[in-house]
Amino acid sequence: MKTVRHEYKLIAVCMYMLFGMATLSMCFTLVQDQMAAKFRMVGQKCKLLSCKRSKDSDDEGDEGDGEGAETEARATRPVRPARESRG
Asked: Which residues contact 25 (CB under 8 A, 6 or more apart)?
């Protein structure tokens, strides 16, 4: 009888911890997205980033295109102005 009770407690604690870790992971992702947006805004105000953003970077869903991290890295990379030729 006691072992059944302990098993239920163990299952409940594991589910509680799993839910807590999932919630914590979502919080980290949210903070990361907010910080990226703030840095992007500061970069645009300082003219380190171009103001144009592609439609792909606004759609943050996973449609399975296979380019997720690569597309995001290209969208957030700062764009440096072209050097003027002297001559």
From this structure: none
**Domain assignment of residue 42, given as a range:** 2-59+68-76
Q: Which residue has the tokens 């001559």?
A: 87
Give the whole-angstrom CA distance, residue 87 versus residue 71: 37
Looking at residue 39, its amino acid is: F
Entry pTM: 0.48
What is the CA angle 7-8-10, rounded to 5?
Answer: 65
The tokens describing 43, both together, are 């970069």
Q: Tell me the backbone φ, ψ of residue 19, rounded to 5 degrees.
A: -65, -40
| Confidence label for 25 from pLDDT (cuts 50, 70 and 90) | very high
